[in-house]
Design goal:
Length: 142
Amino acid sequence: MLLQPEKHIYQALIANPPVARRIGFRAYAIAVPNTAVMPFLVYKRANIAREPVITGHPLYMPMLSIQVSSWAMTHDEARELADDVRLALDYRQATLAGVTIEDMRLVSETDDFLDPTTVGAQLPPAYEVRQLWQCRWQESSD
């Protein structure tokens, strides 16, 4: 069975007391429900790299790039949530939700603002801190 590191990351975040105090269970994969209340997190896969080998079995653990975005009504609140996420995930090595994370590191971080006057904006004015993470994990439970 192939495992999903996103499940591990979700569980790690909602179980982390500083993060949970801010968002509860409001961490969403890719899309945010219309009823979502800020602050919240959005996470999604950005890329997966697997080393090609002749045997058909990877030599190394897959490397996942995952984006975690912290959303809030103020810049300070978004920054504080992003800092809590960083403290919860940076250099993580653990097994949770059946997934073993061997190494997790923050690669980059960017601040942004959602302008509600922009065509297609679905949210009120909001601040976002996007973090890009690299994560090595055990891909199967075998």
